């Protein structure tokens, strides 16, 4: 299902959907008119918030997400913020955010914690 079809089916305005996601209405409008493609993180969040009706792969057709994006998807699916997930694993929010963005490689200790708590390999 397309995002546009989902909004029509649920009778949601761009503003209401933006509120559900925590972004600006103009961002949603740009996704819908095709002038912007949602980032992998937004696409995963949209899939979660639409209960899988709108698939991330349909919003952002790429072959695969990096380990950081898979980790972010699991964190969001469990209803956690990055801050909460970092606290759970006893690591800094900045370190976890860097792993999610695939900007740095985690230490062996952090790899083990991520695998233990979220079942994701980076």
Give the arrangement of secondary structure elements:
Blueprint: H1 3-10, H2 14-21, H3 25-33, H4 40-49, H5 56-59, H6 67-77, H7 82-88, H8 93-100, H9 108-118
Helix pairs in contact: 2-3, 4-6, 7-8
Explain what this protein looks like in three dimensions.
By secondary structure, the protein is mostly helical. The chain folds into 2 domains: 57 residues, 434 Repressor (Amino-terminal Domain), CATH 1.10.260; 52 residues. It contains 9 helices and no strands. Helix 2 packs across helix 3, helix 4 runs parallel beside helix 6 and helix 7 crosses helix 8. The longest helix has 11 residues. The chain is elongated. 20% of the residues are buried.
Descriptive key words:
mainly alpha; 122 residues; 0% strand; 434 Repressor (Amino-terminal Domain)
Structural class: mainly alpha
What spatial form do the alpha-carbon principal axes imply? elongated
End-to-end separation in angstroms reads 30 Å
What fraction of residues sit in β-strands? Answer: under 5%
Number of domains: 2
So what's the CATH class of the largest domain?
A: Mainly Alpha
Helix content: 55-70%
Radius of gyration: 15 Å
The quaternary organization reads as single chain
For this structure, the CATH topology of the largest domain is 434 Repressor (Amino-terminal Domain)
User: How many separate helices?
Assistant: 9
CATH architecture of the largest domain: Orthogonal Bundle
Mean pLDDT: 89
Low-confidence stretches: none
